[in-house]
Amino acid sequence: MPLKFDLSKCTGCKLCQLACSASHYQVFNPEKARLKMIHEYNDDGIRIASKSCILCKKCEKVCPVGAITNNGRWMIVDEDKCIGCGTCVDNCPTRIIFLNNDKSTICDLCGGDPQCIEWCPKGVISLRERKGVKA
Amino acid sequence: MNSLMGKILKVNLSNGSISRNDTPTEWVELYTGQKGLGSRILMEDVNPKTDPFSPENKVVLTTSVMGGTIVSCSSKLAITTKSPLSGTITDGSVGGHTGAELKYTGYDAVDITGRAGGLSYLYITDEKVEIRDAAFLKGLGTFDVDARLKEEVGDEELKVLAIGPAGENLVPYSCISSEKYRQLGRGGIAAVMGSKNLKAIAIRGKLDVSVNDLQGLLKYSKEVTVRDEVIATDNEIYDLGTSCLVDYSQESGLLPTNNFQEGTFEEAEKINGQSFKDVRKNKKGCFSCGIACGNYVVDGAASVEGPEYESIVLGGSSLGVGNREKVIEFNSVCDDLGLDTISAGGTIAYMMEATQKGIHDFGIRFGDAEAAIEMLTKIAYKDGIGAEAAMGSKALSEKYGGEEFAIQVKGLELPGYDPRGSWSMGIAYVSAPRGGCHMSAYPIAEEAWGELDPFTFEGKGKLVADMQNSQFCKFSMGVCDFWPIDDETLGRLFELTYGGEWPADRVYKTGERVFNLQRMFNIMAGFDRTEDKLPGRFHKELLKAGPPKDIAYTKEAFDKAMDEYYAYRGWDERGRPTVEKLEELGIEPKFIEAYKTVL
After folding, report:
1. Which single residue of B2, B242, B263, B325 has CA 20 to 30 Å from B280?
2. Contact B211/A28, CB-based, under 8 Å?
3. Which residue of A32, A46, A123 is in closest CB contact with B282?
4. Nearest CA of chain B to the CA of A53: how many Å?
5. Which architecture, in CATH terms, is A57-104?
6. Is B87 within 8 Å of B51 (Cβ atoms)?
7. A8 to chain B: closest CA residue
8. Cβ contact, residue pair A39, B72, below 8 Å
9. Listed residue (B229, B222, B238) closest to B285, CA to CA
10. SS3 B491
């Protein structure tokens, strides 16, 4: 199930992205996060937006080698099958998939315990429950 | 593995040389990062007597060992230089996201010296470092510089440290802006950049930051931020930001009004925390910060992130201005021109009082917000009367008189707390290495707003010195002022990120070492106790309302408190650290030898 965001509460601290990179790579690097928060000034004031996997499964459909599947709750990348071609990256409607060490990288809800939710200090992030599906 | 990036970037703008050197581990062990590391790098080869605007002066950017990690409030950036306003060592820090961005480029510090042939900007990424032409940015305000550089580089995530026209024109209290409304405000570091023909520093980093003990850090960091209510939404600093202090200062009778002539302001309610909350559009937090004290406010045609308490006072009550929209405009215009709101406001307040008293007619009066805001532009461009105002209140008063109401210490205009209402603040103001500043210690929280008697000096020398030592380590390890963290917690976080053993006494000692290193620099620059003094007003005039009403803040009592302060610090009666003290602190022998030559 996808993450959902109450953007009115977001302060742009990026603790979610730091928690994400720590969870997956044991380092701190917001560039390696599988979600992205945008919180910046523009001509109209502040632009606040989020980018994350919406579970549209388009990546699964376009993957030429069948490396991407899903379990109904998050996407799963088989790194042994992934050839790092970037087709999923190019076709992701939210532009959140990226390649890390030539492997497709997609939010996996930290295996069911999303660290972005755990670390957000302002309660911005939660799980979007879907009918019949429980976390 | 630890959270140090391991490299210091060295740039000489005169000959264009760029080199990368290993970060000396012994410097980190002694001075940790940010304030301490920046001071250490400056001391390495800047003669304390150097003209601040000479190519030999440095602009040193430093990150911290905790920067870029998940530790809350830990990603500030510090810049250290010799100040053109005070002539002391000065360092400032800025929040936002720029400190973390620099860390992700792979550098613990950037050591800039020399003077570029033409206006330039420094472009730093994890892949390359370039000194680039900035002719297209000449004369632009900081907001435009930010936008133009993002466009030029083609990256919305670029972080920019920019100087405005004030910095280009060498106004000695010009400031550096980043992300529009985040300022590295005090002591004129932007003018030093201006003297180096350095219009901006553009930063983009994508490297990993690793720590000594990841699982330990995640667990402990979460635990202590919840314990200390750093992560909370029901605290005042989140709800209102620093503007909450207006009510506190008003109630304590120490809210600077009409250039510190009074300590209460009739129109305080128009510019207090609730008033600004009424026009708040968004909250804004710095990188990795669980608090998020920032507020983006819009009132009429004016908008700003803030205004912070000091800007509300120096651009509001101290000018006799109780107009919210005008305070926001004052703040925003300062940010764009690249002027320190505190020094600009303090200088204008001096001019208003000199005019009021008939000492010299600067043509500007208390309550005239429009004239104050117009003056900012004149200052930034040194246009007409602005060329004089650009000198700052100390130099102006030396020329025209009224030194007792030039509200500054060592040339640095005072922030928003009248020391007559919280006596220790006076000790903090005169002993702060960079001049009249509230960041070295904040005893007001214990005195006027706490349990201690604000109207006695008993035990206050020790109180201030102890606070300064802890603060100086906190600001070297990189934690923001708004986390009231204790030495033990700070040390444990340092162990988990960097490693080693950092019990509370080592943390305290590290801060004391940094404080003494900065004091050494100032002594070698020619300072001693003679300059550790408050403006005459505070000793000669009584406040007439609130708790401090009619209580004398005498020079004699203050001098005695300073005697106690110096003695507690292990300094001599002239306020100079003794050689024995410096040796005890483990300051490197080569600095002590150089220091001995001026004693």
Report:
1. B263
2. yes
3. A46
4. 21
5. 2-Layer Sandwich (3.30)
6. no
7. B282
8. no
9. B238
10. helix
**CB atoms near residue A9 (< 10 Å):** 16
For residues B178 and B165, give the distance between their C-alpha atoms in angstroms, rounded to a whole number. Answer: 15
B401/B232 Cα distance (integer angstroms): 49
Residue of chain A whose Cα is closest to the Cα of B223: A119
**Residue A131: alpha-carbon gap to chain centroid:** 21
Of B210, B292, B296, the CB nearest to A13: B292
pLDDT at B209: 98
Q: Measured between CA atoms, how close is B441 to chain A, in angstroms?
A: 27
For residue B26, the distance in angstroms to the closest alpha carbon of chain A comes to: 25
* Percentage of chain A lying above the pLDDT 70 cut: 96
Mutate to test the interface with B, among A10, A13, A117 (most CBs of B within 10 A): A13
Which pLDDT score, from 0 to 100, does residue B407 have? 98
Tokens of A92: 């992701």
Find, among A59, A42, A46, the residue nearest to A96 by Cα.
A59
Q: Which chain B residue lies closest to A27 (C-alpha atoms)?
A: B210
* Cβ distance of B104 and A29 shorter than 8 Å: yes
> Quick one: closest CA in B to A43, which residue?
B147
CA distance B316 to chain A (A): 24
Query: Which residue type sits at A2?
Result: P
pLDDT profile of chain B (599 residues), mean per 10:
96 98 97 98 97 98 97 95 98 96 98 98 98 98 97 96 98 96 96 98 98 98 93 82 96 98 98 97 94 94 96 98 98 98 98 98 98 98 97 98 98 98 98 97 96 98 98 96 95 98 98 98 98 98 98 98 98 98 97 96
Q: Give the integer Cα–Cα distance in Å for B113 and B260.
A: 39
Q: A41 vs B218: CB contact, 8 Å cut-off?
A: no
∠ CA(B392), CA(B394), CA(B400), 5° rounding?
100
Looking at residue B535, its amino acid is P
Task: Assess whether the region A1-52+107-135 and the region A57-104 belong to the same CATH fold.
Answer: yes
Domain A1-52+107-135 in CATH 3.90.1590.10? The answer is no
CB nearest A15 (choices: B97, B288, B294)? B288
For residue A134, give every residue at least 6 positions away whose Cβ sits within 8 Å of its Cβ, in sequence order, or none.
none
Domains and CATH numbers, chain B: 7-204 (3.60.9.10), 233-401 (1.10.569.10), 412-599 (1.10.599.10)
pLDDT at residue A133 is higher than 70 = no
